[in-house]
Design brief:
The complex is a heterodimer of chains A (108) and B (247). Chain A is built from three helices and no strands. Chain A is mainly α and 108 residues long. Chain A has two domains: 52 residues; 29 residues. In chain A, helix 1 runs antiparallel to helix 2. About 8% of the residues of chain A have low confidence. Chain B is elongated, with a radius of gyration of 23 Å. In chain B, helix 2 crosses helix 3, helix 3 packs across helix 7 and helix 4 packs antiparallel against helix 5. Chain B has eight helices and no strands. Classes of the chains: A mainly alpha (108), B mainly alpha (247). At the A-B interface, helix 1, helix 2 and helix 3 of A face helix 1, helix 2, helix 4 and helix 8 of B.
Chain lengths: 108, 247
Amino acid sequence: MAEPKHHDEPTHHEEHIVSPTVYLLIGAALLVLTATTTAVSYVELGNFNAVVALAIACIKMTLVVLFFMHVKYSSKLTKLTVAAGFLTFCVLITMTMTDYISRAWGRW
Amino acid sequence: MDSHTIAAQTAEAGHIEHEHPPFLRHHFATVEQQRETATFGMWLFLLTEIMFFGGLFCAYLIYRNWYYPAFVDGSHSLHIWAGTLNTTILIVSSFTMAMGVHASETRMRKALVGWCIATIILGCGFLCVKAYEWHDEWVEHHVPGLNFSPEGFMRVNPAYPADAPLQRDMAEKTQVYFSLYFAMTGMHALHMIIGVSLLALLTIRAWGGAYTSGHVAPVENFGLYWHFVDIVWIFLFPLLYLISRHQ
């Protein structure tokens, strides 16, 4: 087992402090993606309008989770918690949608 | 580290030496451990929130497929500029909140208070735009159960002159769209109101210097909550406003 760390060293920083430059870049990227998704919604893409809009939303979510919410710099416990949560959510949505699209043929 | 070690260390550091910072609870060995525990708990809470909003998103997807023309016409009645403006406001507020966490980590009291106040103002701005939209929907009789009328969807929408108006039975089904719209934006706005209220309390305590002496966890975990509410809107915006525009 590792030597227990003492908290009384004033300069001791185990946490990673994210620099304001990173926050500024991520914020700018999110604003650009927002402008993109709005602009793309004015272009006729058929079914792909929804695909593109949701793909951009997923990219934005990933940026927010990794950088604004510090998951990129977090402990393995936090990473595992977040990943397990998203996996469970995806399983629940997939199972529900699989059930719905395999019933009531002709009504979809 | 097992609980014995922690207890022994806490007893040593906390009770005998009395050299721990006042915000460190006695059942934690170090500030880092306390902060890690609080973050873990906050993420578990956010996972329950994901499941809660996820259920609403799932219902939206299923009913959108079921009553597709009603959902398209319902979506056409929203203002895309208002949705885009609100997305922009929320993203900037997430940036100011992230900067608030940075100010707390680098122990800059006035900067922390400033970023928190900026976040509060942006949060209130979001709610004002949302209130304007809801008022618009009330005026147009789009509120199910209170003043709903399908008549507007049985005429050609001037903004979409090429689209045929809905028949009465499908026009009635726009109530399903608006029920989910008000449920989702309403729950999101409730989270915003709770967030702004909590942040006001945090700001008052931050002014007193509570979070700029190494006690980062409350600001950081509030930031997690605020960013989560931002993520919910990041998905609500395309689903409610954008994806039906060209259908």
